[in-house]
Amino acid sequence: MLAVKNSRDLVAGSILAIVGLTTAYLGKGLSFGTLSRMGSGFLPNTLSWIVVGLGALILLRSLFVTDDAPEWPRLRPFAFICLGPVLFALLIGPLGLMPTIMVVAAFVRCATPQKITPRTFVFPAALAAGCAFVFVYLLNLPIPLWF
Amino acid sequence: METLQNLVMGMGLAITPTNLLFAFIGSLLGTLIGVLPGIGPLATISMLLSLTVALDPVTSLIMLSAIFYGAQYGGSTTAILCNLPGEATSVITAVDGHQMALKGRAGAALATAALSSLIAGCIATALIALLAPPLARFALNFNAPEIFALMSLGLLACVIFSPGSFLKALAMALLGVLLGLVGSDVETGAQRMTLGLAELSDGLSVVSLAIGLFGLNEIISNLSRPDGRQVATQSLNRLWLSRKDFGAMLPAALRGTALGSILGVLPGGGMTLSTFASYMLERRIAKDPGEFGQGAIQGVAGPEAANNAAAQTSFIPLLTLGIPASPIMALLLGAMIIQGIQPGADVMIKRPDLFWGLIASMWVGNAMLVIINLPMIGMWVRLLRVPYDILFPAIVIFCCIGSYSIGASALDLVIMAAFTGVGTFALAVGYPLVPLLLGFVLGPLAEENLRRAMSLANGDVAVFIERPVSAAIIAVMVLLMLSFVIPMLRRARSANSEA
């Protein structure tokens, strides 16, 4: 019986195949055309299926080649850093730049453990003030400062 | 003579107060991020891409380029003083540079690094000025098949030189092309893979993609590692070289420059490669190879010169063919497109100011960098003591502002977050990220040229081998593949016979 020799390629190959199938599905309605007159779906479809094929090959590799296990990052920094920009996206419209920066900076800072000191509160405020000065006053970015 | 005239014209542009100021800002920023290990030129340039839209194209490219080569200088400072390479290209510098510092020769090591970089930067920039015009003139005759072949070569080289599995790198490159195709099709107007979102009809923003993949991702991996940053606090002695040191440094720097200039033009990661190649060359020809690893001055001069020369000559494919040789160049290509400049062989003719202004600014920038780096070294070292828990929230905020400011679109921020996740996942299971970015930037351009080539040739694929230039490019691709596959097969066979 075949046994999985490395979980890294097992995960890598299956996700890749799923991604390829997804793009193939998304490009399904596009016209393929011919070689001399390529439609909008020619490259998306061809590439999607090649990607699916590569995914299958990598999946196959997991049965024969030993490799290290996947090196997952720590969950806490991953979650806070990924969600930081999403929070920024949600707040920037209703709140404006200064409050958004303060909230997001404080939120992102939680990616690593911290002791609550005055710095915990001073730093986001200082960062917001600094950013407002550089980006809005110096560089004239058209972002409202306050709600 | 024409080159000389053009250079004078470019110099005139490079020393206008605005351009001088932005070259300085770029050099300063470059040094700063080169010194800080948590953030590299790729992330910085992608953050600033959106802010430079308002600037004149020449000014914006001058600043973005200065960030890039400035980071090469900054990276070596921390490598020497703290055995902490700020960039991948200064890993080798740390070997002998830090040994020199431990032996009380930190000043000499820093001076060697700065001077070798300056020598290499000046010579390599002169090379660009000499070689780029004839190359671009030659490339002007290229038609769609040649351009498509060149882009494929660039992508293939990037895949082959990526660390890790070939299949995975190839998959990432193709995935990058697919992502690049998102949005409305230029030719037919069809909405492709936009999930019905109107904001996506212009395609994914290269800034959000690059910041997510490289900037934020880097922070996550830094935070996932146990903290290993410590700054050696040795006092700096005089920052100059004795005559004997200079005599040992100069030939090594010149050899490094030659090596780096050649490797830098190659698509894929020529820069890091050139530092290793130069180090091995220096060790091989040294009278006393035992000195290497113990603080050999040649071991600092050669690689430092090589990486700086390669950094400069990697501009050649971008400026003459419109093909980026590295991810940084891909971002600069993105910057040109955002500015409304169609990259390609005719940039030099349509926008001579851009081309020559940029080249002349490289001399200016390199000279500035020596001034920024040597006398101000104490300040940079002090900066290393800024704790990372202050630095990283600030970087995240800059990334958000950079990504948001391009189109004031909340979706761009979500895309950035999504690609942070994609990048983290990809690295965890061994997919390299650079081919994805290169595929993304080249994808739409490659499709356009493939379409044009195929419609000109009536769908006959043989057109790629019938035209001499594209046939030659394809031959190079085949050779590249073979040089990669044959050693692999040989290794597999010897492994089998041993078993």
Tell me what you see in this structure:
The complex is a heterodimer of chains A (147) and B (499). With 147 residues, chain A is mainly α. Chain A folds into two domains: 7-64; 75-138, no CATH class. Helices cover 67% and strands 0% of the residues of chain A. Chain B has 499 residues and is mainly α. Chain B has one domain. Chain B is 74% helix and 1% strand. Chain B has a two-stranded antiparallel sheet with strand order 1-2. In chain B, helix 1 (2-14) packs across helix 16 (352-373) and helix 9 (206-224) packs antiparallel against helix 18. The longest helix of chain B has 34 residues, at 106-139. Mean pLDDT of chain B is 85; it is low at 229-233. Chains A and B meet through helix 1, helix 2, helix 3, helix 4 and helix 5 of A and helix 8, helix 9, helix 18, helix 19 and helix 20 of B.
List keywords for this structure.
heterodimer; A: 147 residues; mainly alpha; 2 domains; flat; B: 499 residues; two-stranded antiparallel sheet; 22 helices; 74% helix; globular
**Radius of gyration of chain A using CA atoms only:** 24 Å
Low-confidence stretches of chain A: none
Instruction: Please state the oligomeric state of the protein chains shown.
Output: heterodimer
Strand content of chain A is under 5%
Sheet with the most strands, sense and barrel status of chain B: 2 strands, antiparallel
| Pair of chains with the largest interface and how many residues each contributes | A-B, 70 and 65 residues
Strand content of chain B: under 5%
Mean pLDDT of chain A: 88
Question: Mind summarizing the main beta sheet of chain A?
Answer: none
**Strand numbers in spatial order across the main sheet of chain B:** 1-2
**Shape, principal axes of CA atoms of chain A:** flat
Based on CA atoms alone, the radius of gyration of chain B comes out at 22 Å
What's the count of strands of chain B?
A: 2
Helix content of chain A: 55-70%
Share in helix of chain B: over 70%
Class based on secondary structure composition and strand pairing of chain A = mainly alpha
Along the chain, the helix and strand elements of chain B come as HHHHHHHHEEHHHHHHHHHHHHHH
Q: Overall 3D geometry of chain B? A: globular
